[in-house]
């Protein structure tokens, strides 16, 4: 048996789609394929903000890897990756070691703290099922405590969110919908609760059309969100954040601060000696690392430039899923001795930011703007299409957002 | 208008039943009746352990005072009692003061710490809706944290309960039923979770027939409860309890410690200068205080002796509800110039301890022992009878435990 060993690290969007593509295009005789993941489930990172807000149960967001990956064809190892040695072609796991002939790195993102004092220790971040579930419970716990305090402890029922990018805005929108429920569950008067979004840049949803941004901000302000734009977070403590605008500082008392302002590639990649640019590997057009012909990178650990804007493409699920097609194709070529590797070409079909429930904003087909219900339907359609691609109709029915119209 | 002022403090079992009885037996011309309560709802203290375990939502346990008290007949004041001056016949509230001609004290219980180091600061107690809800969320929050820790932090998923009396056992039974749900919700392996009940006395459910106690302990041990009988709690810290048995000390790591071992009367009563015995007023047979002819005490703030056993009756809902009948009768007598006050005679119809869901143990009709489903049905029947008495069929249908047989 001289089958090459293909090892895929991570079962996020890029990793699991690579595995699913390979199990379709390759026979067991062609290669031995191993998928390594910390958990026995895959989750949709783009839904985690709903789990964190408590508007969607996390079991809707995750699915058993077993449900979409055929464990007869693909060897699944549930373990945590500690490091990669591309010279000896080995991967160190918490409980063992794996050798590879071809490696696919899909280890996802980490929060970037930008060196802000106290974020590491005191901020909550939306990173995975565990941390999203914790945020939901953290907020609930503080609401539960409010009526047990003698004085009025507004810090318990003030929620601060750092960052008005995609995740920050989508999360704040879900929270705005959740707060009335929290008030009812915990006997807290709605008017006492504050939901504050702090953004260093001059606008929310930077990069979106100003008309769409205005729509989003108006809708969220109507629901009680307070925006603090052009405002830096200087420090985060156990029960407050200190912000600064125009050289004036303000302390906002909050026991609920969620940092949603920045992500970077998994630090294991850089620590393993791969060339990175702000934590991501500047991959070749065929999605291999600059230095190693046998190592591919998919998803948030990779960075590719958009030649039109001369800026990197943002790390999205859409691009990770498309990368997986290219990686699977190129692996098939290499294993079968083919020479012609495909270059990755992203096809941005549209970008939609959910504003919760039946509301959203977005751009599709390059310049068509969508608002409200039509944008929301488009958002759910995109999510449903992914589930179809990943696991067919069965998975769509099980995990899809089928309440598209209400 | 020379109507006397009747003021009832507290809308627990004794207070609210006194109010409901008076609104039936007295006309508005006879007396002005005022009911004071901290919240605008009444709750069933005997169900709080279910709310705390998370097996029953607290909205099932509470009901709007408005639903059973006619605010046209009874003046409702939502406020917190700070102190009573029986000499000047005034009650100080947080936001005002009330004068009375007749007073009914129904201010309920407080946890008794027995001077154990750290209980005040670190133990959770089942006292009211707010604290029960907090316990539910506290346990959930620690379970949510478990998978975010690198090392195995068993303290997060160990639950300690102090006391194997009525509340302690009923609470542990609900928790034993809840833990499988918690394990599923938070991805925690069941075998890692510990549920430990610590009791200083030599037996659980002291006072119950040994056969019933054995049944209860066997059932709970089957569900994974660890009993530590004859074991003193010496100290409670933020993340542990220190227990001692036969002069050997053991530290049990737990972030979830609930103290369910002792209650005493509301400290306001003693602080207001009433004669008390271990925090309760040793009332006369007509339920007035020893010193004041115009002050009645109902429920947990009163203590009456059982002449058969020469020990005080335990403070139960059953007795509080019966006391309210006597107090209402005697007030009617006094207001209408009658001389003959009734003496209180408790009628113990039965005592049933729930073991969760469809299981229980109990004694009815003096010496008939009940186990399992029949005891559970009896327990629910007792609870339902109270709701009937308090608010009629409408309330029974709204808040009753109507799933009696499964």
Automatic annotation (TrEMBL), chains A, B:
<dbReference type="Pfam" id="PF07992">
    <property type="entry name" value="Pyr_redox_2"/>
</dbReference>
<keyword id="KW-0274">FAD</keyword>
<dbReference type="InterPro" id="IPR036188">
    <property type="entry name" value="FAD/NAD-bd_sf"/>
</dbReference>
<dbReference type="InterPro" id="IPR023753">
    <property type="entry name" value="FAD/NAD-binding_dom"/>
</dbReference>
<protein>
    <submittedName>
        <fullName>NAD(P)/FAD-dependent oxidoreductase</fullName>
        <ecNumber>1.6.5.-</ecNumber>
    </submittedName>
</protein>
<comment type="similarity">
    <text>Belongs to the NADH dehydrogenase family.</text>
</comment>
<dbReference type="InterPro" id="IPR051169">
    <property type="entry name" value="NADH-Q_oxidoreductase"/>
</dbReference>
<feature type="domain" description="FAD/NAD(P)-binding">
    <location>
        <begin position="5"/>
        <end position="324"/>
    </location>
</feature>
<keyword id="KW-0285">Flavoprotein</keyword>
<keyword id="KW-0560">Oxidoreductase</keyword>
<dbReference type="GO" id="GO:0016491">
    <property type="term" value="F:oxidoreductase activity"/>
</dbReference>
